[in-house]
Amino acid sequence: VTATAGQLPRRVLAGPGGVDLGSAIDLVGGVLKWVGAAFLVPAAVAVGYGEPVWPFLASAVITSAVGLALDALTGSKRGTAVGIREGFIVIAMIWLVVPAFGALPFLLGDVAQLSNPVDAYFESVSGFTATGATVLTDIEALDHSMLLWRQLTHWLGGMGIIVLAIAVLPRLRIGGRHLFERELAGPTEIERLGATIRQTARRLWRLYVALTAVAVLLLAATGWTGLDPAMDLFQAVCQAFSVMALGGYSSQNESAAAFAPVTQWLLVAFMVLAGVNFLRLWVVLVQRRPEVVLRDEEIRLYSAFLVFGAVLLAVELLAGAVTRGEATVRDAVFQSVSIMTTTGFATADYATWGSLAATTILLLMFVGASAGSTSGSIKVVRHLLLLKIVRRELVQAVHPEAVKPVRVSGAVVTERALRSTIVFVLLFLAIFALAAILLALDAERTDIALGAFDAFAASAACLTNVGPAFGFAGPYGSYAPFSDASTLLLSGLMWLGRLEIIPVVVLLTRGYWRV
Amino acid sequence: VRIVVVGAGQIGRTVIERLHGEHELTVVDLDAARLNALTYRYDVRTVQGNGASRRVLQEAGVPEADLVIATTARDEANLVAAMLVKRMSGARTIVRATNAEYLDAWREREIDVNFMVSAELETANAVARVVGLPAARMTDSFADGQVQIVEFDVPREANRVVRRPLRSAGLPRDSKVAAVVRAERMVLPRGDTTLEPGDRILVIASPAAAHEWARLLTSRDRPLESVAIFGAGAVGSAVAQVLLDRGVRVRLIEIDPERARAVAEALPAADVFESTGLEPEFLDRMRIDQSAAAVFCMHDDAKNLHAAILAKLHGVSLAIGVIDDPVSAAILERGGVDVTINLRDVAAEEMIRFAHDPRVRQIATVGTDFEVLDITVRGDSELANRPLHELADTSSLVGAIIRNGAATFPHRDDVLRPGDRAIVFVESRRASIVERAL
């Protein structure tokens, strides 16, 4: 049998097993060539502020060129449908590769604090995964265009690169569903909107853009009306990108503390809003069916968690007499909302608060917001499912024969979904623990002062996509002291957390690669 | 009366047995042997063929028939037959249907059938009657179910309502007694009418008030605690649904894991157990003796018998067997089962009742004596904007008013406004007068 030119690369790239690597790489290339366009936004800002434009233009060209090259290399695979198997690896690759190209401007633009490629990559991963952990020690030293690029990575990654690609790129119409379900956070049912995957992706992004626009306007208005002297349009855009993605990067060294109380309350409101399932938000805001919210158990538990966290922190602040009056309430509410929704904005250095607050904050990291929102972590619906599983186990301890389907908001949850919830939470906690050990080990090796609590907190803050942790990595600190090995490990945690672990862990199983 | 029966299965045969004496019957069935056997027992005409076929129905004499009863086990075949009949003749139609959605659609008048009977639902009602809850049949509903017409049997022990004038009987709000059927006669009740045991009444009510009526007519002094149902098939689920609707706690025992799961998903309020129901240890653990009754509907009479006797040994006071074979009834009762209910008999019974006296049902459809009118009040109506009690007596009754999508159940001082939708009960001969007046 003679191999023709068209068949040869396919055979080579298909690999030894059942995974069609060729079409996976083709898809990554197809997405990557369009990611280049994102650099034009900071480029425009650079022009406006008279800052160097070429780092962004060069990044754009390199990114698109690599994308096109991958596309050309796997030309024979064009238009191949992506199966479940390829879906996992596409997602994993895109979320590794895109941040790598996203780090280019930091390196090309000679940002002093990010000259180490590992640090630049960390910063970019933290951006795209909407984590908000930073290695910068002086944020305000960056150019406007660099700052905006940082915030933009949050915004693009928040709702999802692939969800955006499905919304705009025609070729993802086939097989896009696997990708969509993998990327949209949490066990959500996407059929709810009664639309195709592409329409759903478009609606999500349209809503995301609209809410961001509202956030920009409201935030900027506090500046225009003189309520907040620190606020202007640029700051408003930066904070809005960050808050809607539940990211946590700020354009200010002092994070949200740089702004007036009214701005901080506004940020709280938008964090709470962005923490709601966007599919549900669409039903409420666009289809105008607000009654859906009242019946939704996830939203109810989400609100309960928010209130509970705020009360615990307020108790600590009042007992410790750290602040007084409105400021106490504001600090307690802001920090609990910011941590629980996995944002990572701060109005106070909670690392200096007492042990009740520290414990509360560490645990709030594991709550997360709703599935289908831009938040990370375990997410409220999984906590809800776990509660119900526990309750069922207790009933079945007395009545082993009892058949009790678990329901959320009246809808039955399949046993398969329950199993995957348990597995997810177990993996999540196992990785959290393992990473903490590794961080402590590496700190020992490199002689960094990392306390036991701080090791756990840093591991949690990255895996849950919160961002700021405790110790030197606290809200006003930086991850810079970590060694390169630890920095890479933490980047990996953010990546795992954003992809909700399973797509990545699947790649490590032998069954995945075998025919 | 000329009657065509489609389907000569258990229900069909019971219907034939009960009707062949006084009526002229034609039986349609696919199975020639079955039909042949039938002709040796009853003097009926038979046509072999598919009841959902035009040609076969023609041959069976549907164009000249007065009533067609479709009793096959397949809902869709019955419905197609009824559709064809409506096109071919003026015969009334009775259809057997199992699927609850068809029943709902029929009540909402989306399906043009005079009477629809569900064997499962009738059985469930029969079980409810046995455990002391009144039988209630929803016959019609309006305005997305906000207004229901429900038919009740008044039991002997319903001391709270019988022999008292309606206006002082403390009846549920948002409801009206629309008609009383006594000794085959139907009357529109007035404030001084009293209810007697054995009456059948038609109540027009909101869903909540209909529930209250069911409680009011209950013959039990204290509320029913819980009922155990063995077997969660179509019948078991229907029984569970009816009992749950009346606020009774229900425990379902089903051996098949998939079936148990499906029922647990469909009936969130029921407690479902995956078990054979034949293990003494299980029955003890679930405290079966504290159930007010146990219903056995496992579609296997030998198993039903075994489980029922076992449950009785464990202290169940009332064991009810649901069977579909007349021989089993004798066996179960001999074995010690307190009550047996024959699924097919119950369904056939309802069909025969309608065949004999269609007025009760027709009140909700095309009437002879009474009609339900669903009309919108015109702007220039002479009856609008006046309290109901001032209106001249027209042998009619305004059962409900639907205004801006919300239903109200009017009293004597209420007023009809232009644009209201009124649900009116009226004697047929006066229907046109009322219609014109509104």
Number of DSSP helical runs of chain B: 15
Structural class of chain A: mainly alpha
Average pLDDT figure of chain A: 87
Strand residues, percent of chain A = under 5%
What is the makeup of the main sheet of chain B?
Answer: 6 strands, parallel
How many helices of chain A does DSSP assign?
Answer: 24
Question: Based on helices, strands and strand pairing, what is the structural class of chain B?
Answer: alpha/beta
Radius of gyration from the alpha-carbon trace of chain A, in angstroms: 23 Å
Shape of chain B: globular
Parts with pLDDT < 50 across at least 5 consecutive residues of chain A: 1-15
Question: What does this protein look like?
Answer:
The complex is a heterodimer of chains A (515) and B (438). Chain A has 515 residues and is mainly alpha-helical. In chain A, 63% of the residues lie in helices and 2% in strands. Chain A contains 24 helices and 3 strands. In chain A, a hairpin with a 2-residue loop joins strand 2 and strand 3. In chain A, helix 3 (40-49) runs antiparallel to helix 8 (144-159), helix 5 (84-102) packs across helix 7 (117-128) and helix 9 (161-168) runs antiparallel to helix 10. Chain A is globular and about 65 Å long. The relative contact order of chain A is 0.10. Chain B has 438 residues and is an alpha/beta fold. Chain B has 15 helices and 21 strands. Chain B has helices at residues 10-19, 32-41, 54-59, 75-88, 100-107, 119-130, 207-216, 234-245, 257-266, 280-285, 301-313, 326-335, 343-356, 359-362, 431-437; strands at residues 2-6, 24-29, 45-48, 67-70, 92-96, 115-117, 136-142, 147-153, 175-182, 185-187, 200-205, 226-230, 249-254, 271-274, 293-296, 319-323, 339-342, 370-376, 396-403, 406-408, 421-427. Chain B has a 6-stranded parallel β-sheet, with helices on both faces. In chain B, helix 11 links the parallel strand 15 and strand 16 (319-323). In chain B, helix 1 crosses helix 13 and helix 11 runs parallel beside helix 12 (326-335). The longest helix of chain B is centred in the N-terminal third of the chain and has 14 residues, at 75-88. The A-B interface holds A 399, 401-405, 407, 410, 412 and B 253-254, 257, 260-261, 263-265, 268, 271-275, 282, 285-286. Strand 1 of chain A pairs antiparallel with strand 14 of chain B, so a sheet runs across the interface.
